[in-house]
Amino acid sequence: MEEDLDFSAKPTPRSEAVARAAVQVAAQSPLYQPAVALEFFRSAGTVEEQSAGKSFFSENEKAGGLFSKNARMYLLLEGEIGLMIRGKFFGVVKPGNVFGELAVIAGLPRSATAMAKINCRVLSMDEKQFHAALAKKPEFALMLMSIMVQRLRQSIAKLGAAVPVTAAPERSDILDKKALADLQKQLGMPEPAVFQAGKVIMSAGAVGAFMYVVLEGRAAVSVGNSVVEHVGPGGILGELALVDRAARAATATAEADCKLLAINGNSFLNLVKTKPEFGASLLKSIAARMQQVAQQVAQMQA
Questions:
Q1: pTM (2 decimals)?
Q2: In sequence order, which residues have a C-beta less than 8 Å from that of residue 17 and are 6 or more positions away?
Q3: Domain of 207: which CATH number?
Q4: Do 32 and 108 have their domain in common?
Q5: SS3 of the chain: helix, strand, coil, percent, to 5
Q6: Maximum distance among all alpha carbons in the chain?
Q7: Count of domains forming the chain
């Protein structure tokens, strides 16, 4: 991920702040392995070439719908990509990096324009190809999650001193009833963890031993003194700490009596590596949270 894509600079307009958080460009970091990304894209992707000055996608371009283009994500093989918001350059993509994945993973509108600065060659894939590649190499989901979680944690940190967020969004149905039933069966039908209303499910700063899927009830997720989202049945809690093995980024409290499916670290890794649909659901959940948190940070900076 480009170091420029953060909120450390002076406040920006809401749309630009959202874009800087939402446009994901894989960085050369210990979490990102270019060889793994190349192998993943080669398994199902298509080679494309773009001449200098031509765009791969445009700001606000929708990822799905009657009048939208079929969204694609990319791995840059040769050349250099410029990222622009409102015609203003703000970052670059270098060879070996992934860009444009949020539109494919979560169907989000494009937050910026990606334009070839020089002649470029890429491997690209649409949603169908992405899921086909994930079925062959499900471990790629964990690497992509690690990159996204790193960016999400930076945005969450910005909310720590924020004023209370109004109308915090709700996340639910990330996993539908069939997916929930399959997941419980895969885990051996464990007894759900029960938390009465008002009880803390997890605390910011604590070591994360489990992630949770809400089976019944609703939980509130707080950063500092602000409730930033509510999580209902089918929603997911606590996965960030299992992805990067860092401390909890937020506190979750039961708003109503809750029944949760607890998944430990070993089971989590096994599911990601063997169940592509589970990894895809987690990626979609994290992408949605990235968008929500980016919007909240933008409100704070407005």
A1: 0.79
A2: 7, 11, 294, 297, 298, 301
A3: 2.60.120.10
A4: yes
A5: 35, 25, 40
A6: 59
A7: 2
Query: Same structural domain for residues 124 and 34?
Result: yes
Structure tokens at 140: 């790629």
Q: What is the DSSP letter of 250?
A: S
Does 153 map to a domain? no
Q: Identify the burial level of 105 via C-beta atoms within 10 angstroms of its C-beta, where 0-12 means exposed, 13-18 middle and 19 or more buried.
A: buried
Residue 283 counted as domain residue: no
**Residue 282 half-sphere exposure, CB side, CA atoms within 13 Å?**
33
Q: Are the CB atoms for 291 and 18 separated by under 8 Å? A: yes
Q: Indicate whether 177 and 118 sit together in one domain.
A: no
Question: Residue 52: what are its φ and ψ, rounded to 5°?
Answer: -55, 135
Instruction: Tell me the C-alpha distance between 26 and 209, whole Å.
Output: 27
Q: What is the mean pLDDT of each run of 10 residues along the chain (302 residues)?
A: 31 44 46 87 96 94 63 95 88 91 88 94 95 93 88 78 60 83 92 96 93 95 86 93 89 96 94 92 87 72 58
Domain encompassing residue 182: 165-276+294-301
Query: Tokens 């494919």 belong to which residue?
Result: 104
